[in-house]
Amino acid sequence: MKCGIEIHQQLNTKKLFCDCDSRLSDNVIGKVIRILRPTQSEMGEVDRAAVEESLKKRKYIYEITDNSCLVELDEEPPHEMNLEAIETALKVSLMLNAKIVDEIHVMRKIVIDGSNTSGFQRTALVAMNGYVDTKFGRVKIPTICLEEEAARKIEEKDNYVVYRLDRLGIPLIEIATSPDMKSGEEVKEVAQKIGYILRATKKVRRGAGTIRQDLNISTGQGRVEIKGVSKLNMIPKWVENEVKRQEMLKEVAEILKERDARVHKEIYDLTDIFTNTKSKIIAREIKNGGVVLGLKLERFAGLLKSDKFRLGRELAERVRVIGIRGLFHGDELPAYGISGKEVEKIRKKLNLGDDDSFVIIAGPEEKVRLGMEKVIERAKMAIHGVPDETRAPKDDGSSIYMRPLPGAERMYPETDIPPIRIPNSYIEKLKRELPKMPEERVKDLVSLGISEQDAWQILHMGMEDEFEKIAKKYGYPTIVARAMINGCRDIDYEPVFKYLNEGKFAKEAVDDIVLRMCNGEKFEDILSEFKESVNVDEVIERIVKNKIEFIRERRENAFKPLMGIAMKELRGKVDGRIVSEKLREKVEKIIESSS
Amino acid sequence: MNIEPGDYVEVATSKGSVRGILLPRPEYGEGNIVVIKLDNGYNVGVIAKEIRLIRKGERKERERRGEIKNLKGLPTISIIGTGGTIASYVDYKTGAVNPALTAEDFIFTVPEIVKEANIRAEMVFNILSEDMKPEYWIKIARKIKDEAKFSNGIVIPHGTDTMSYTSASLSFMLEKLPFPVVLVGSQRSSDRPSSDAYMNLISAVKVAKTDLGEVVVVMHATSSDDKCLIHRGTRVRKMHTSRRDAFKSVNSRPMGEVGEEVKFYGEYRKRDDKLVLRDKMDEKVSLIYFYPGMKSDLLESLLDGMHGAIIMGTGLGHVSSDLLPILRKNIRDGVVVGMTSQCLYGRVNLNVYSTGRELKNAGVIPLEDMLPEVAYVKLMWLLGNYDLSKVKKLMRENLRGEISNRRFLE
User: Fold this and answer.
1) Is B339 contained in some domain?
2) B165 vs chain A: nearest CA distance in angstroms?
3) Contact B13 A102 (CB under 8 A)
4) Is B227 on the interface with A (CB under 8 A)?
5) A43·B16 Cβ contact <8 A
6) Does B5 touch chain A (CB under 8 A)?
7) For the segment B274-308, what is each residue's pLDDT rounded down to a tens digit?
């Protein structure tokens, strides 16, 4: 098994080719409708992924937001590439030991699923031949690219897709590893490590969907990309399931070859068989003027669906992307309202032997015929093994077919943007400004007095700078760390520890204060509750006065019980350290005077 | 062996070596940087210490397109290419954008055309829109006349920058038309999946099949790919540098729209049974943009040796009063001077203010609501074909829909 990963991280600079803000927006102020067409290459071949999308004959509706302009609408040429984004990409490249190109050339990568208004994604290779080391060994990073994020899909129907332009154009750093990894756990570790490096730049967007990973998995035949795996913890599961799927397909291929299985081109009209069917799906399609077409799969029986084999699902996934839900195959019938008698008739009409199976699809004729072409194509591939494809991850750890793997010839230069020269002097300057590597940062934090685990956690949250500042200024490293880890990212922790340090409240109160701040309460309001602060000296004075005989009697041994009494009254209001200091002072005075 | 662009090479650099196809040097950039197309499709620029040939690139013959069969019952439409990238395709190997040169190329780019019409296509020249000149307008007009023998309609793909000048000149030169002449362009070149060229070109072909006998421009109606508008050739102007819907009819409604079908909103000239071409142009005409502070000696030099001039004045049609003596003198010497407005929208009126009245007294012709560029083309054409008194009279008359008497709130 060979596995590689591609990481896409959004940056929080302005957008890559215009001056719009890199954020999401719900403020939709208009929309336009567009159609995209596959462009044809000189060779006269239309790219296969491009064709698949155009077959869908879709309209694309783009929602215009307050953070989009004519550039996102493809109504104005791109501006020059955002310098801050370039600088961030170059710093990441250096941290990943990659070699920066002397001149950056922006390319257009054809993508006609509508996610880019232009029909292509602008992308530039900024560095090559880097690597990252983990406990599993070294993983090579052949390319690091800077590209524009796609529009956000809002709604998808068979004949149209709605995209929102808020996300389009947000800078993305794309980091691709070689297929060097051998396990899902290793992939997870590499993803994590690269994630820390990206966050160290402090220029990355945070939150759901701002970093995405694509997995490339091959088990010797074909190459499969699982696109958009965002949950790191799920990665091992996706890898494991995909490997299982590929092993299953390889086994299916072997059996099919052994049986000398064949896929015929003839498509049979079986509509007559279903005139009185109990199948709701088929009855509805026929009522709407649709047809039921059938295809013979010679010597495919038992491979479409059994305990071990699931080729039927693969066929269904291929037609699902062109909007066909009503595909049934021989291994699963009779079922779904389709009777044994109907199956019998199908088998008779297609002249099927015991080893043979079949596929039927119900729907509008033109669409069903297109679907049958897809089924024929996929069934033929099954004889050869694992086809190259792009799949979408599902939450249960499985994945589903999206489209063929894009070909390599889908790129040509973005002529609207001149090449960007990166002089060595600039690279040298960037080297001097690089943030510390995550491991070094963790060491810094540990040296302030927290555990390594907490240090990684704080780094993960991107709060290492704030932690360092507070812990150095006011102390309490473990309390600061705990507060941050249990708290949230978007509150200001400094005043909490400033007032703690001034004795306005006790450290036991910190957790509660942070929790309330994370729930939206203002620190000043919470602080005012501590205003009627008890006079510590008064309380201690009173306790000591009441227990003066006890002190004289027990001398040093009186401290502990008295501390208990004091803290009962002062807990959460005054730092125990302060109470202890003051009480000890008083007790010692009394002991001294009495001796 | 000699290393040329297109060859597969290995380039040694101070940061290691890279392999890929050597690309031609772009016109910009530093001399020591070579551009390589990597195996993954990306181009990168690297400083080369040494370039080693791995294998020679294949010489590629220009793709031959299959024969196109003409279908019975479909009209024949001539596509007269003038250059620009409305119909073009990309060579993904080098990234070059190639213009469509033949009918086959056009059909290759927009295959749906064959359902609409049988296509004849020819490039009369291949130039950028901004390099267009009156002599090229005449060439196009003559080509249209030649095509009358074969065709039921004309479509002229044209760069958008000066398309409205060409449409105006053809409007005047082609006095009578036996078919529609449709100019069409694109604001996003057709090498992009999002190009407006496809819909514009198909819509243009649809308009070329109608009973129209005028020169029109067909372009996107809005930013959406849902319909095109038909603009009269003498009323249209590019009003935005980059938007799809840059072309607007000024001081008049568009003539119609094209969605699935062509729909005309109102009256239009129908096809004539013959074509009448008057193809002379007097190029000694200047188009002068007045601005505050314009010096009289500059105006004098702009008028020097000219037979006519169109001024784009301020507001209702004014220039500063210190320019009056120059204008008076030139008009007395026989130069035809017409007044249009920088406002573009609305009619000039030289009766409202004293400067206007003085301009009028000096002999400046107020040109109603005509667009300045249209007035410029019209004056060239009139001076080429009529005597002076006729020119002055016809400048104020509506010949091809370029002038209207009534304007409305849109």
Assistant:
1) yes
2) 23
3) yes
4) no
5) no
6) no
7) 999 999 999 999 999 999 999 999 999 999 999 99
Query: A100-158: per-residue pLDDT in tens?
Result: 999 999 999 888 789 999 999 999 999 999 999 999 999 999 999 999 999 999 999 87
Of all residues in chain B, the one with the smallest CA distance to A40 is B89
Within B173-325, strands assigned E span 174-176, 181-184, 215-220, 228-232, 236-238, 247-249, 256-258, 262-264, 276-277, 285-289, 308-313
pTM of the entire structure?
Answer: 0.83
Residue ranges making up the domain that contains B17: 8-55
Tell me: the pLDDT tens digits for B114-151?
Answer: 888 998 888 888 888 888 999 999 999 999 999 999 99
- B62 lies in some domain: no
- Determine the distance in angstroms separating the CA of A2 from the nearest CA of chain B, rounded to an integer: 19
What DSSP assignment string belongs to B21-70? EEPPPPSSS-TTEEEEE-TTS-EEEEE-SEEEEEEPPPP-PPPPPPP-PP
Taking contacts as CB-CB distances below 8 angstroms, the residues of chain B near A418 are 28-29
**pLDDT tens readout for residues A230-251:** 888 899 999 999 999 999 999 9
Using CA atoms, how far apart are residues A263 and A373, in angstroms rounded to an integer? Answer: 11
Q: Which residue has the tokens 């007395």?
A: B332
Write the CATH number for B372: 3.40.50.40
Q: Taking residues A356-360, what's their average pLDDT?
A: 95
List, by residue number, the catalytic residues of B: 85, 160-161, 238
Contact status of B39 with chain A (Cβ, < 8 Å): yes
**Residue B257: CB partners within 8 Å, gap ≥ 6?**
B221, B227, B228, B229, B230, B263, B265
Mind listing the pLDDT tens digit for each residue in B321-377? 999 999 999 999 999 999 999 999 999 999 999 999 999 999 999 999 999 999 999
pLDDT at B96: 60
Question: For B242, which of A39, A76, A410 is closest by C-beta distance?
Answer: A76
* CATH at B36: 2.30.30.520
A100 contact residues in B (CB cutoff 8 A): 15
Residue from A42, A64, A69, A106 to probe the interface with B (highest B Cβ count within 10 Å):
A42
* Phi and psi based region of residue A313 (left: phi greater than 0; alpha: psi -120 to 50; beta: remaining): alpha
Structure tokens at B401: 């829909």
Q: What is the per-residue pLDDT for B65? A: 59
Mean pLDDT of A203-222: 91
Considering the domain architecture, whether residues B224 and B108 belong to the same structural domain is answered as yes
Output the six-digit token pair for A569.
Answer: 């009254």
Q: State the ipTM, two decimals.
A: 0.91
Q: Are residues B227 and B368 in the same domain?
A: no
With beta carbons under 8 A apart, name residues in chain B contacting A421: 29-30, 33, 45
* Total domains present in chain B: 3
CATH (residue range A254-404):
3.30.1360.30
Q: Are residues B217 and B318 in the same domain?
A: no
- Do residue B272 and residue B295 come from a single domain? no
* In a shared domain, residues B328 and B188: no
Domain ranges of chain A: 8-209, 254-404, 438-529, 536-594
Residues B251 and B372 in one domain: no
Lowest mean pLDDT segment, chosen from A491-505, A556-570, B22-36: B22-36
Any CB–CB contact under 8 A between B158 and chain A?
Answer: no
Find all residues with CB under 8 Å of A457, minimum gap 6, and list them. A481, A485
Of B254, B277, B300, the residue at which a domain comes to its end is B277
Residue B262 belongs to some domain of the structure? yes
Between CA B135 and CA A546 the distance in angstroms is 114
B97 in contact with A at a CB cutoff of 8 Å? yes
B233-262 average pLDDT score: 97
- Chain-centre distance of CA A363, in angstroms? 36
With bands split at pLDDT 50, 70 and 90, how would you rate the model's confidence at A43? very low
CB A541 within 8 A of CB A547: no
Q: Mind telling me how many Å the CA of B246 is from chain A's nearest CA?
A: 10
Contact B33/A at CB under 8 A: yes
Among partner residues A119, A410, A419, which is closest to B192 by beta-carbon distance? A119
**Statement to judge: residues B202 and B108 lie in one domain:** yes
Stretch 244-283 of chain B: residues touching chain A, C-beta under 8 Å: 244
Query: What is the residue-averaged pLDDT of chain A?
Result: 90
Round to whole Å and give the CA distance between A257 and B10: 42
Tokens 């939709």 belong to residue: A28
